[in-house]
Amino acid sequence: MATSLQPHEPRPDARQRSEQHAVFDLVRTETPGIGQAGRHNPQATSRGSDPLTLGGVARVRIAHPTISDQDDVLAMNAASRAFHRPWAHPPQDAAGYHELLERDSQEDCETFLVRRVADEALAGVFVLSQIFRKGFQNAYLGYYGSAALAGQGYMAEGLELVLDEAFGPLGLHRVEANIQPGNDASLALTRRAGFRREGFSPRYLKIGGRWRDHERYAILAEDRKPR
Fold first, then answer.
1. Which of 202, 195, 209, 186 is nearest to 22 (CA)?
2. Can you point out the beta strands (E) in the chain?
3. Tens-place pLDDT, residues 52-88
4. Model pTM?
């Protein structure tokens, strides 16, 4: 998992950063709720992007989470608990999921579920948090995924869709991902998407009760290669 300031935290200053950021695997078309003006309604049914097609076959789509997705997200997190630790601590109960929905309703956060097109299986969650505007146009990327669907490229494809949203409709210039050393799967995911290593931040975020070192990766809008 990449550690983006966890999607359920208020925006911290440099002294208040605590556990946030988590990583994992998407399709494309254009559906209400993604890439359009206005905030999403968490009480609505799940809405998604057009599938991203790879080799002519759409494998995944992204959508903002809604209340109807709660059972799927919590079930995935429970089944993937050992897979997530110690890298990420996503919601484990209804209160945590409602907090995720609340954060996603704010202007500085965009959360995306990645679902496999063939059967709507949940592959993972991406979060763009602490979206800064004006002269920065930056967001922090976090993510976590399904242990059952890991290693099949769904999160890699999903990340491409999320970056399309970030640098397209959302108008961002930079996306940053902070990843703990040793989290090889997350490091590989961001590198594959074109993120560059910018530096090392000792004891950067408090995760699981401990201040943990992170490697800092980022990608700029002009770094994106046409697909």
1. 186
2. 47-48, 52-54, 57-64, 110-116, 122-132, 138-145, 174-179, 196-207, 210-220
3. 444 556 799 999 999 999 999 999 999 888 877 767 7
4. 0.77
